[in-house]
Amino acid sequence: MTKKKINILDNEFVPQHTILTEEESNELLQKYNVTYDKLPLILESDPVVKIIGAKPGNIIKIVRGYSPAGKSVFYRYVIGEDVKETLEEEVLDEIVEDDSGEE
Amino acid sequence: MFKVPKVIDKIQFGVLSPDDVRKMSVLRVITADTYDDDGYPIEKGLMDQRLGVIDPGLKCKTCGQKFGDCSGHFGHIELARPVIHVGHAKDVHKILKSVCRDCGKLKLDDAQRQHYREQLEQTSDRLKSKETVIKEGMDKAAKSVCPWCGSDKRNIKFEKPYTFYEEWDEERNKLTPIDVRERLEKIPVEDYDLIGVNKDVSKPEWMVLTVLPVPPVTVRPSITLESSVRSEDDLTHKLVDIIRINQRLRENIDAGAPQLIVEDLWELLQYHVTTYFNNSTSGIPPARHRSGRILKTISQRLSGKEGRFRSNLSGKRVDFSARTVVSPDPYISINEVGVPEFVACELTVPERVTANNLEEMKKIVRNGPNKNPGANYIIRSDGRRKKITDTTKDDVAEELDVGFTVERQLRDGDIVLFNRQPSLHRLSIMAHEVRVMPYKTFRLNLCVCPPYNADFDGDEMNLHLPQTEEARSEAGIIMKVQENIISPRYGEPVIGGMQDYISGAYLMTRDGSEFPAEEVQESFYESGLLQNKIEVDAFNERKVWTGKELFEVLLPKDLSLEFRSKACRKCEKCEFENCKYDNYVVIKEGKLLKGVIDGAAFKARSSCKLLDKIVKDYGSDEGREFLDSVTKLIISIIMKVGLTTGIDDVDIPEEGLERIDEILENAHNKVLENIEAYNRGELEKQPGQTLEDTLENRIMAELAKARDNAGAAAEKYLGMKRHAVIMAKTGAKGNMLDLTQMAACLGQMTVRGKRLHRGYQERSLPHFKPGDRSAKARGFVSSSYRKGLSPTEFFFHSMGGREGLVDTAVRTAQSGYMQRRLINALQDLKVEKDRSVRDNSNNIIQFEYGEDGVDPSRSSYGEAVDIDWIIHKTVTMRKE
Hints:
The complex is a heterodimer of chains A (103) and B (880). Chain A has a single domain (11-100), classed as Eukaryotic RPB6 RNA polymerase subunit. In chain A, 36% of the residues lie in helices and 25% in strands. Chain A has helices at residues 22-32, 47-52, 81-100; strands at residues 16-19, 41-43, 59-67, 70-79. Chain A has a four-stranded mixed beta sheet. The longest helix of chain A has 20 residues, at 81-100. Chain B has 880 residues and is α+β, with helices and mostly antiparallel strands. Chain B has five domains: 26-73 and 215-310, DNA Excision Repair, Uvrb, Chain A (Irregular), CATH 4.10.860; 84-203, no CATH class; 321-484, Barwin-like endoglucanases (Beta Barrel); 500-641, RNA polymerase Rpb1, domain 3 (Enzyme I, Chain A, domain 2, Orthogonal Bundle), CATH 1.10.274; 647-791, Topoisomerase I, Chain A, domain 4, CATH 1.10.132.30. In chain B, the strands form ten sheets. In chain B, strands 8-16-9-15-14-17 form a six-stranded mixed beta barrel. A four-stranded antiparallel beta sheet of chain B has the order 10-13-11-12, covered by helices on one side. In chain B, helix 23 (691-715) packs across helix 25 (736-743). The model of chain B has no long low-confidence stretch (mean pLDDT 88). Chains A and B meet through strand 4 and helix 3 of A and helix 26 and strand 29 of B.
């Protein structure tokens, strides 16, 4: 069986992702008065991120459309696998400590 | 006001140095014994009197203070050989790996050091913290050969919990704590920043212990049992072990004992010190008491649910609170809570005496402590407290002046917080107005039961009394029951009618229900509506009232609303206001023109249209008033009409029973046909299923259909004349499925979604033949509760029932743990002014609250505005 190429962006459940330009990124950070590290994250290896070609350091705008109050806009900061590892380690440590005290 | 004596600016954590331990010590403990034969503490022992006092009457030999005033003093033990501190073992390993074994320097060259130092200066955010930079640097160093002296690279292996080995080529060498300490000592101070040690407060070698602090006796008090036998604290036991081994180790070293013996004792000392810190260290057996009980050492004192943090620091106990059994009282407002008199006499609020309330306060003080509303204490302007007794109350009242504070007893109208565990959501604690009442229980309006999940089978609830004006007014404004009628979770009322209120409303408002004027007047009087909502004159004009006319009295005068009632039959073509079953409610300008009021109008925890509209459009005051009066009126009416249920509510005439039997008989036959087809091998496999699965599914489907049909056949006879049906159809209690199970047939019993099949080999019970797949043999109950179950059916039924019970038990345990984890994760999240949701380090969680910015409790069914209603309102206004 030959593998059929599917563009996941065509799927209706994949919301619209766009890469913000530097200008837009700065505007966003200014609007919420934060630095980039305060934004929600998304992995570089995320299927959609790979397709639209965003690199670590970019900010992605995600527009979802099916909420009762209309469309909702979300932003995510792209990170590489290396950052993910350090973040996960911290989280794992916390969980292990938490569980050991649970008995 | 309250004065903070000292403000903590910051806390600096570091590793305790041996010198510090000696400096804070008042005594070097050298004797492992505690008390001598006369029961006197032994000098330089673990209970030395210089370490503090635990006996009342004695004085501390260090500070001279009495028991209770002296907080105790540390001693110390000089260890004969150093031991690793388990808590630091992991860090020691990381450091050992990254420094040179010969010169002690961090194995990074100048350029690399420069690079990491620069990064350390720059970074301080979540994605690249100082810790990750240090970790990166140390990992890099661990992999390299020393650039400074070029000594060969050897791998340091760490064996939990406290053993280190050095490995090279094929060789392996154990590192003793002395070796470890030497290496750590060699690390130059300049390298500390790159291995994550703060040079101002810590040195890496301090992670290997040479002296051990001995905590004061006040931390580990011994208890004297009734038989005057002294019992020592677990920590003391552990310290005795440490000193004993330490002593033996020293003696053996001094006597020049063989290396092997010294090493054994050293290992033993390491074990004891390790378990002294943490007795649940993985990899070593826990130290036990002589009785076999596992000792509770330092780490065990701190961690877990019973630990210092969760039990003593986060879990505070409070004053000004009360707890007793709750019981119902439909005649108090939903805002109120009935407080027993004896509780009210105990709880007090400080109230400042001013020129305006001086007389009132005097009157209260004159009531004394035993008559509510009285007062228990006064505080004079100079801060002196004086107790009020029955003998002094009049004198105290005379003395009372502006500037005094009176600790006044709880009285009607005070705001208190009321709570029922488990406090799963914010509605588990709400503010109520006090109503002081006789007897010994808290009284609660029935409409407020759903948010607390309370019933009256012995439930107890807690009451808390806010002590300041600010707290009381804040609670009154935002936590009041009436402000919480609409749930913040799904935007529908959580407070509202239930059970008899719903069926009562139906009995009152259904077509054809009429009441003579005298009865109506009586009901209005009982529910406090007479002369409040309606004048006495109304009864002169109208001799007979319909239920709908009665109900109208409670509605706001300009309310217009249309909705389908709960009993709506969902006909194919809806006739709307011409519904022949009277199930389409039409309210125009406060008149109930059509339709019957039931669960769809004001039942709690459901999308009830009427209550929802009243609260959202007319405000919480109107909502509270509506609920208070509607419930009182309905009770009065239902007492006149009467509602009862009995076994005859599920009686079905002979022809109906025959019809049901026929349906079940057919189903049985069809099941047998399927089984036969299977046995003959003629059954066709369904895609993705085995032949057995196919058969099972077909049988299950056949039997489910049979049960439904039998139920439907029974339903024909279950008309609205039967009170059980009224309760089911109006949404008061139960549903039609329950009723058909009583009247017609219980249906298939299942365990884990499958027909019952386990128990005996190839059969569920010995009453059947092995391999019998028929309906009867696999847990289909064709009897009804009304008819009674056969012995085998009864057994099958209990199997299904047991699974349900087990599931609930498991679910509550799991959801409780999930709840705890969720609260820990979400407790600091906050909606900021720009409507974004952020955590405590300002990380953005959501850019717009809930991704749509809608607060469910302020929206109408999830939408920001109810367009239909606005149009409707505008149109009616235009007409006027």
